[in-house]
Amino acid sequence: MLQSPICDLIGISYPVFQGGMAWIADANLAAAVSNGGGLGIISAMNANADWLRGQIRQAKKLTDRPFGVNIMLMSPFADEVAKVVVEEGVKVVTTGAGNPGKYMAAWREAGICVIPVVASVGLARMMERAGASAVVAEGTESGGHIGELTTMTLVPQVCSAVKIPVIAAGGIADGRGVAAAFMLGACGVQVGTRFLVAEECGVHQNYKDRVLKAKDIDTVATGRRLGHPVRSLKTRFSREYMKKEYDPNVTAEELEEMGVGALRKAAVDGNEAEGCFLAGQIAGLVQKEQPAAEIIRDLCDEAEVLLKGAARWVK
């Protein structure tokens, strides 16, 4: 059975985190992943404290296993949701889009494992100094907000730079990706795109179908002009956005406005004309809908076979 120090740290059976995907990672999906032995994560996205509290309590009804909350630090409700995770006894918090330093003392005092998502060695070191329990090193192959470095280059450099556990993310959808992450020095993986087609994922069926039909070249990164690039599937919306992004007559404010609500239109409404369907470059490898627990077992069973056989190349 594939296990690592991250399993002991947070009390999970398999070293697999489910990505905290906005409008997608809710209590139902998080509980299914946690019941399957991984770490399910609820996305706090831009929601307020009451919404998040309701999701946490719903997850507690569905699982008695540890689960986490992902807090986007740029959210206008960041301060209040940071208190909710303490009040509700959440075991793990992952963070993105900012520095969680102002919340770290309260979270640590409450016994929360704080695991920031990082896209550079510098940020990983900063999070370690701030008291993070571990970091998620996320490569540019991932869906959603991305950095510049690939998973292959980022993960080993972060592993060499910090002493805390490192979870690899970006471009991982099968056991080969899991095994590769371990060989790079990680002790766990975070998976997003493959969990989009988990049976317990409540995303609109149009979204799932687009992921299942995707090929290797079917994603695009937009938003570089604004300084916060995002990876999504190629759609009518993303092509139109790309066209306007490089049009000097279109202002940054107009681009920002164009993106407002686009993810919700995809995830909730299944709007294929105006929705932004976030997904990673590994989408072409995702072939079928499965229960979350089965996805976790597939990832880990295949990785275990590969890791046990790795010595065959050594003469």
UniProtKB/TrEMBL annotation:
Keywords: Flavoprotein, FMN, Oxidoreductase. GO terms for molecular function: nitronate monooxygenase activity. It comes from the Bacteria. Pfam families: NMO. InterPro entries: Aldolase_TIM (IPR013785), Enoyl_ACP_red-II_put (IPR017569), NMO (IPR004136). The keyword Lipid biosynthesis does not apply. The keyword Cell membrane does not apply. Transmembrane segments: none annotated. NCBIfam families: enACPred_II. Nitronate monooxygenase that uses molecular oxygen to catalyze the oxidative denitrification of alkyl nitronates. Acts on propionate 3-nitronate (P3N), the presumed physiological substrate. Probably functions in the detoxification of P3N, a metabolic poison produced by plants and fungi as a defense mechanism. This is Probable nitronate monooxygenase. It comes from Candidatus Caccousia stercoris.
